Amino acid sequence: MKKYDVIIVGGGPAGIFAALELTTATREILILEKGKKLAKRHCPSKEQGTACLGCQPCSVVSGWGGAGAFSDGKLTLSGEVGGFLDEYLTKEELSKLIRYVDDVYLRFGAPAQVYGEDEETITRIEKKAVLSDLRFIPSRIRHLGSGRTLEVLQAMEDYLTGQGVEIRTEETCEELLVEKGRVTGVRTNSGLEIPASFVILAPGRQGAGWLAGEAARLGLETRVNPVDIGVRVELPAEVMGELTSVLYEGKFVFYSRFFEDRVRTFCMCPHGEVVMENNDGLITVNGHSHAHKKTPYTNFALLVSKTFTEPFKEPIKYGRYIAGLANLLGGGVLLQRLGDLQAGRRSTPERIKKGLVRPTLKEATPGDLSLVLPYRHLRAVLEMLEALDGIAPGVNSRNTLLYGVEVKFYSSRLELSNSLETEIENLFAAGDGAGVTRGLMQASVSGVVAGREIMKRL
Question: Which residue numbers in the chain have pLDDT < 70?
């Protein structure tokens, strides 16, 4: 069996950028990706207009490019959001790497426009935020858009294969091979044992459960990350127009008045659509903005963060339980008009039709989110909507739609060195699956960090 210098588990942004970095030192690189090639990543239920068919793995969140392939494609050019890399790198190092990664995206076709540079508007929004009890995080953002993201990712794949990198899609790493405290390779789902000098684990959120299992098997120490549970909000694009036209995405943090839970806006999609995701059989909700087509609505997530303490150590199971309850009651994604939620009644198709917003996710089932979300989560969401109304009047309208649930299955965070090496020699971990990042930019940066350390040792 051929021995590789580096095996990368996962073909998402962390794995891709690790490979891009490593090609300057070696061509003996293998990428294993459990999903399909980009051209084969199709959602049959979306194309046929039917309920989710439960494909395994789900092509919306798995395959070349990872879950970000069909995402909104936002590159946040700030180290303040998108992960925990500032715990491994200095602020200056992280900023420098963000600029470097941004240049790579530009080289592969990212657009030149950057949002969030109008200082006058930013100052005005900051003042409104303070008066509304909100923390505003100004961020420069480069927006790819769902269509252009695919083009950029395809260009990266073409480049890597042209450099001699071997990419095997629809092949899963089942087990890591370790001898005397050093990684020696991987065992795949087909039973192949492939030797390697270095392994980078970058399985993304979809591989978080597998990675946690391998960490436990190998005795690797982990930290419990917060779990983020909430809803996706959809409203007329005009309501958020001032924010999105300048910032593209407004990032706000709020602490609920009663429980003081942290609530944040996430993944704002101007003129976008709400979409379903299949997370290992659980149907959750997300949002996209396309590069080449627009809707009259804007959507964004409101996520409530909860960090668990002893003895509970399984936040992923907790998130899956909440998502499963929504699936049980609604057969998938639940939809509720804010006015109905505030009035203590479920939404019906007739009540949805009376509103000003036509749901962009047609498969969502009208229902009652108060039967799904825990009380403290629900109260935090409602308080946040009231606060956001001070920034953008109309957010807290009875016509605003809420989809549930949106859950971010962040992995338990592995104990890593500053170069993202695990306690096992030559075994590195990067991206969202390792629990160190929460978005495209920092995931990409983490791949570069791991790749550069391996280059020193090759």
Answer: 49-51, 409-411
